[in-house]
Design a protein that fits this description.
Structural class: alpha+beta
Organism: Microlunatus aurantiacus
Shape: globular
Pfam family, one: Oxidored_molyb
Strand order of the largest sheet: 2-1-10-5-6
Keywords: Membrane, Transmembrane, Transmembrane helix
Bound molecules: the ligand Nc1nc2c(c(=O)[nH]1)N[C@H]1C(S)=C(S)[C@@H](COP(=O)(O)O)O[C@H]1N2, molybdenum atom
InterPro entries: Ig_E-set, OxRdtase_Mopterin-bd_dom, OxRdtase_Mopterin-bd_sf
Oligomer: single chain
Number of helices: 10
Order of helices and strands: HHHHHHHEEHEEHEEHEEEEEEEEEEEEE
Radius of gyration: 30 Å
Protein name: Molybdopterin-dependent oxidoreductase
Length: 529
C-alpha cells in the first residue's frame, strides 16, 4: 500500500490501491457490459413486441444465407443440431468484442463508441428487415437495445472518468470512493445484463420455436369454401381491399405480451351446462373436416370513419358441431370463452348453435396459420357480433352458462353484455380531401354482418345518390361501394349511409363507441378547386 504512482490494473484482480488509475481495460469492460445489456434488452423487447425482431437470431439466419452451401452443410455435419447455438454464441462473442472496442474508442473520444454501436445496430436491422420483417415493431428491439446499451456504456464510462480524476487528485478517500462507485455500478449492470441476457434468450428461443412451427404448419384443405368472385373487389385505388392482408389487419387485445402458445400445448375444453364435457387437442381439431368462410371482424371501439375493422378468409371448425356433441343443457343462453391469457367473452349460445351462421373455431387466416397476434393456434370468429363478445384469441375454454351467471371481460367495465354489430359505412376515397372539378371517385366499404348490405347512398351536401355495389361472398362481410361524382367547385360535405338487407338504413344519430358501438354517418369535407 505504499505505491502511489498510477499503474496498470487488471479488471480481474483490481489493485488494492484506490489511487491507481483505471486503465483502458476498464473502458473495454464498460463496452462489453453495455453490449451485453443491449443484447439482453433487445431480446426482452423482441419477446414483448415481435419475436421475429430479435437481432441475434436474425443475423444468424442472414449469415447462413450468405455462407456457401458447402460450408453450411459442413457445419451441420460436424456440429449436428448444435450448429445454430454455436453460430449464435459466435455472434454474441463477436458483438461483445466489438463493444469492447467501442469502449476503447469512447475513452479516446466522447461518442466514439457510438459509431461502433450504430454499426452493430445497422447490421442487426439489415438482418431483421431482409428476414421478411417490415413492421415498425420489428425494428424496435434492435434500435432500442443498442441505444440503451450505449447509454449504459456512457453511464459506466462517466463513473470511470470520475474515478480517473479522483485518482489523480490529492485525496485518497475520494479516489477510493470513486473507484468503489464505478466497480459497484459496473458489477450491478453486468449482473443484471447477464441475467437479462439468459432470460431474454430463453424467451425469444421459445417464441422463435412457436413461430417456426407456425410457419411450417400446412393448413388442412377445407371441405367447403366461399367462392371469391372477381367482382368482390372494385380494384379502386385507395379503397380498402376486399380481403385485408394479415399484416394490415387491425389488432386489439388486452395482452401486454402476445401469448406464446405452441399448438402441441394447446387444448380446448367445453365445460359448464353440458351433457358431456369435451377436450380437444390441436391434432384432433385439424383432423376434423374444416371449412373456409369469409367474415368481417369489427371492434366495438371503432369510431365512425375508423379502421378497427378487417375482412379475412377464416379456416376452422363450425363451433355448433362441437356444441352439439357436448349437448348444452336447457336454460343455458351464453358461452363464456376464456383465452390463454385469461381474457373472456360472453357470446349468445344461439349465435353459436345457429345452423345458418358459420361461427368458427379458426386455425387459418387468409391461407396461413393464424399469426401469433391474431390468436395462434386457435381463435373464435363469430359473424355478426363485435369482437369483444365473440372473437376470443388463444381460446382455451368454452363454458356453457347464462348471462345471469357470468359476464365477459368488458361488461363490468361499462360495455354492453350483448354486442350485435350496427350497420356501418366508411368513406376511403378520396384519400386527399381536395380535388379538381370534374369526375371524382367517392368509394368505401359498408357492413352489417350477418344481415348484409343492400344499398349504399352518398350524400353530396345533403342530396343522396345511390352508389354502385361490389359483389360479396355473403352477408358476413363488408361490401365495397363506389360513386362517380361530377364535382363542382367549392367546399362540399360528402356523407355515406348504408341500408341493410332487411331494409333498415343506418342511423344518423351520433353515438360514441361505449357502451355498444358507435353510430352516425361518416362525413368528410372535400374542397373542389
Ligand atoms: N384473448 C383475447 N382475445 C380477444 C381480445 C383480447 O383482448 N384478448 N380482444 C377482442 C376484441 S375487442 C377484438 S375487436 C378482436 C380483435 O381481433 P384481432 O386483434 O385479430 O383483429 O379480438 C377479440 N379477442
Ligand atoms: Mo374490440
Amino acid at each position: 500500500m505504499t505505491q502511489t504512482a498510477p499503474r496498470a490494473e487488471s479488471p480481474l484482480a483490481p489493485a488494492a490501491d484506490p489511487r491507481a488509475f483505471p486503465t483502458g481495460r476498464w473502458a473495454e469492460v464498460c463496452g462489453v457490459v453495455g453490449g451485453l445489456a443491449g443484447m439482453a434488452i433487445a431480446d426482452l423487447l423482441a419477446w414483448a413486441l415481435a419475436p421475429s425482431g430479435a437481432p441475434v437470431p436474425a443475423v444468424g439466419s442472414m449469415i447462413i444465407d450468405l455462407l456457401p452451401a458447402g460450408l453450411v452443410n459442413w457445419g451441420k455435419e460436424t456440429l449436428g443440431t448444435a450448429d445454430k447455438p454455436v453460430l449464435l454464441v459466435i455472434i454474441v462473442l463477436g458483438v461483445l468484442a466489438l463493444c469492447g472496442l467501442a469502449g476503447r474508442l469512447e475513452q479516446r473520444r466522447a461518442y466514439g463508441g457510438g459509431l461502433v454501436f450504430a454499426a452493430v445496430a445497422a447490421v442487426g436491422l439489415v438482418a431483421v428487415l431482409t428476414g421478411g420483417q417490415s413492421s415498425i415493431r420489428a425494428v424496435v428491439p434492435t434500435v432500442g437495445g443498442l441505444l440503451l446499451g450505449y447509454l449504459l456504456l456512457r453511464a459506466l464510462m462517466l463513473r470511470r472518468e470520475r474515478w480517473s480524476l479522483a485518482a489523480a487528485g490529492p485525496d485518497p478517500d475520494a479516489a477510493r470512493m470513486a473507484r468503489r462507485t464505478f466497480l459497484r455500478w459496473t458489477g450491478v449492470v453486468a449482473a443484471a445484463a447477464a441475467v437479462g441476457a439468459v432470460a431474454g434468450r430463453a424467451l425469444v428461443a421459445t417464441a422463435g420455436a412457436v413461430e417456426e412451427a407456425r410457419s411450417r404448419f400446412r393448413l388442412p384443405t377445407p371441405t367447403r369454401r366461399d367462392p371469391l368472385p372477381a367482382g368482390v373487389d372494385l380494384g379502386q385505388e385507395g379503397l380498402s381491399p376486399y380481403v385485408t392482408p394479415n399484416a394490415d389487419f387491425y389488432r386489439i387485445d388486452t395482452a401486454l405480451q402476445v401469448p406464446i402458445l405452441s399448438a402441441d400445448d394447446w387444448s380446448l375444453t367445453i365445460t359448464g351446462m353440458v351433457d358431456r364435457e369435451i377436450t380437444l387437442s390441436f391434432a384432433d381439431l385439424v383432423a376434423l373436416p374444416l371449412v373456409e368462410h369469409v367474415a368481417t371482424l369489427t371492434c366495438v371501439s371503432n369510431e365512425v370513419g375508423g379502421d378497427l375493422i378487417g375482412n379475412a378468409v377464416w379456416l376452422g371448425l363450425p363451433i355448433r358441431q362441437l356444441l352439439a356433441e357436448a349437448g348444452p343443457r336447457a336454460g343455458a343462453d351464453m358461452v363464456l370463452s376464456t383465452s390463454e391469457d385469461g381474457w373472456t367473452a360472453g357470446t349468445p349460445l344461439e349465435a353459436l348453435t345457429d345452423p345458418d351462421r358459420l361461427a368458427l373455431l379458426a386455425v387459418g387466416m387468409n391461407g396461413e396459420a393464424l399469426p401469433l397476434e391474431h390468436g395462434y393456434p386457435v381463435r373464435m370468429v363469430v359473424p355478426g357480433l363485435y369482437g369483444y363478445v365473440s372473437a376470443t384469441k388463444w381460446v382455451r375454454e368454452l363454458k356453457v352458462t347464462t348471462f345471469a351467471e357470468d359476464q365477459g371481460y368488458w361488461t363490468p367495465l361499462g360495455w354492453a353484455a350483448q354486442g350485435p354489430i350496427k350497420t356501418g359505412s366508411r368513406i376511403d376515397v378520396p384519400r386527399r380531401r381536395s380535388a379538381a372539378a370534374g369526375p371524382v371517385v367517392v368509394a368505401g366499404v359498408a357492413w352489417d354482418q350477418h344481415t348484409g348490405i343492400a344499398k349504399v347512398e352518398v350524400g353530396i351536401d345533403g342530396d343522396w345518390r345511390e352508389a354502385e355495389l361490389a359483389e360479396v361472398t355473403g352477408p358476413d362481410t363488408w361490401r365495397q361501394w363506389r360513386y362517380r361524382w361530377d364535382a363542382t367547385p367549392g367546399s362540399h360535405e360528402v356523407a355515406v349511409r348504408a341500408t341493410n338487407a332487411e331494409g333498415s338504413t343506418q342511423t344518423a344519430d351520433l353515438a360514441a363507441p361505449a357502451p355498444d358501438g358507435a353510430s352516425g354517418w361518416h362525413t368528410i369535407t372535400v374542397d373542389i378547386g
